Amino acid sequence: MKTLSRRGHALADPAAQLRVLSGRPSGEKSDRVSAAPDFDGALADAGLAPLSAGSLDTLQVNVGKLCNMTCAHCHVDAGPDRKAENMSAETAEVVLELLEVSGAGTLDLTGGAPEMNPHFRRLVTVARGLGRHVIDRCNLTILMAKGYEEMPAFLAEQGVEIVASLPCYTADNCDAQRGDGAFMKSIAALRMLNALGYGTTADLPLTLVYNPVGPSLPPPQGQLEADYKTRLAEDFDVRFTRLFTITNMPISRYLDHLLETGKYEMYMEKLTAAFNPAAAAGVMCRTTLSVNWDGSLSDCDFNQMLDLPLADSRGKGARPRNIHDAPPAELLKAVLDRPVVTGSHCFGCTAGAGSGCTGAIL
After folding, report:
1. Average pLDDT in the 201-218 region?
2. For 61, phi and psi rounded to 5 degrees?
3. Which of 24, 85, 87, 174 could be a cystine partner for 65, CB 3.0 to 4.6 Å?
4. What band does 189 get if pLDDT is binned at 50, 70 and 90?
5. Which helix (H) or strand (E) holds 243?
6. Alpha carbon distance, N-terminus to C-terminus of the chain
7. What global pTM score does this model have?
8. How many whole angstroms from its chain centre is CA 49?
9. What are phi and psi of 278, to 5 degrees?
């Protein structure tokens, strides 16, 4: 599979995705706009509007779109061809300065394959030196790639939590999303991580991530975790700490899949009907700040991919939109207690038990 960007696809442009999400099909030339799901209206009806961010618990940093894989459900449209979109040393240093002054307890590193960024190790070692918890959102197969043989040992030495995508415990379903052979490479990586203590000791947590293969909501997280643990232990002698279930967001390559299969409207109706106010109250954007590879700021990783910047300050003019726009302490003051930018895609995080980078909300 090629990325949307490599194919020159219209949906490679976040503006085209937003047109679909707002009710206008991508590339439509007429002025007719069908009704789009009203997320702000759902919040208002639940007494949760306006949604706002408060404390900063997690600094989530997308270090680039470069990846050794091109997964069918990827909301980043990451792949081997996205080499130019990779965080610079200068931006990485500002990220570390912001982390230090913010007091955020967690640095959450994502991509692409974050390990492929040349400054990944510095981000990890400095953050750990500051006493912060560090998460590596790993696709597992990168740990088996040439040139990354020492990465598992490095992660273990630093005490980094690995949060790894494994969309199913069977090869057919996993490979359908991630490519032929991805499942067995992932199993080999998991066994290697187990040998280092990941998933078998409290100091080295190994979290797996499930997302549905089809246009449906994830099953109950606790029940699926038990199934995963049984099947992976019995079939492959693999252990892990916990499982996150994450709903597929209707953006980027998954949006393209929904449109190509004629299931977009059905999926959005399913997400909208399952809106859960309790889940909406606990969405990750309320305690997370998302930093893109170029330093631009968003409320969450999904808004980042849609090029949705932070909202302006009410009555106070423009809010910093990039970590290079202001000194870290000044920037931190400006981004706290901000209104969260929302849209119809947000139904993906608030359907059923809710969904986010830390799995089910409820």
Report:
1. 95
2. -125, 120
3. 85
4. very high
5. strand 242-245
6. 34
7. 0.95
8. 24
9. -65, -40
Report which of 153, 283, 111, 138 is spatially closest to residue 207, judged by C-alpha positions.
138
Q: Which of 169, 166, 110 minimizes the C-alpha distance to 140?
A: 166
Least confident of 30-34, 194-198, 237-241: 30-34
Confidence of residue 318 (pLDDT cuts 50, 70, 90): confident
The tens digit of pLDDT for each residue in 112-139 reads 999 999 999 999 999 999 999 999 999 9
Could you give the CA distance from residue 153 to residue 113 in angstroms, rounded to a whole number?
A: 17
Helices marked H in the chain:
4-7, 14-21, 39-45, 89-102, 120-129, 151-158, 171-178, 182-196, 221-236, 252-260, 264-273, 277-280, 301-305, 328-335, 347-350
Cα four-point dihedral sign 294, 296, 300, 306: negative
Model pLDDT, residue 264: 94
Looking at the predicted structure, is the pLDDT value of residue 317 above 80? no
- Phi/psi for 150 (5° steps) reads -90, -5
Q: Taking a C-beta distance cutoff of 8 angstroms, is the pair 129, 102 a contact?
A: no
CATH number of 4-14+54-350: 3.20.20
Compute the distance between CA of residue 217 and CA of residue 274 in angstroms, rounded to an integer: 9
Side by side, which strands form the sheet with 106-110? 242-245, 206-210, 161-165, 133-138, 106-110, 58-62, 288-291, 297-298
Residue found under tokens 């330093």: 295
CA distance 183 to 166: 8
The three-state secondary structure class of 257 is: helix
